[in-house]
Design goal:
By secondary structure, the protein is an alpha+beta fold. 31% of the residues lie in helices and 24% in strands.
């Protein structure tokens, strides 16, 4: 039962104003909005899995560092990041003194259900944003990542 008397209760959250017009703030809306904002601030589970994958898969050198300043990246990588974000994919970019690597990932819900553990679909791109490799990966109990066999 919806006990909210807010006139905006039937509107999608994205179109609601922070305060209902002419009435006190809706307590349920405030709680939901606060939860949504907290989720935005926290890394998602996929972000954390992608980070663990990149660090443990041995793809980038130990001295590589994560790059978050998009302005320092090539146009090809920036385009790939925008596309990943539009498609709801997580991303991480790494660099050393010579190379840059971009990884994008999403959780494969079907494969995760089948295996009973998270399965990441990971794509790897080079400095120019060209696709180098793509695959599905799973972590074992020792946090070692391996490619899924289909």
């Amino acid at each position: 039962m919806n006990s909210c008397s807010c006139p905006a209760r039937d509107q999608p959250l994205s179109s609601r104003k922070p305060r209902c017009e002419g009435v006190a703030p809706c307590a349920k809306l405030s709680a939901v909005e606060t939860l949504r904002l907290k989720r935005i601030q926290l890394p998602t589970h996929v972000d954390e899995l992608l980070h663990a994958f990149v660090r443990s898969a041995g793809i980038v050198p130990e001295d590589a560092y994560m790059v978050r300043d998009r302005n320092s990246l090539t146009e090809g990588i920036r385009d790939r990041i925008l596309k990943a974000e539009r498609n709801g994919r997580s991303w991480e970019c790494w660099s050393d003194s010579i190379h840059t690597w971009l990884f994008t990932a999403e959780m494969s819900l079907d494969q995760s259900r089948e295996r009973g553990t998270p399965v990441l679909q990971v794509s790897q791109f080079d400095e120019e944003g060209q696709l180098q490799e793509t695959g599905s990966y799973v972590s074992d109990q020792r946090a070692r990542w391996g490619r899924c066999s289909d």
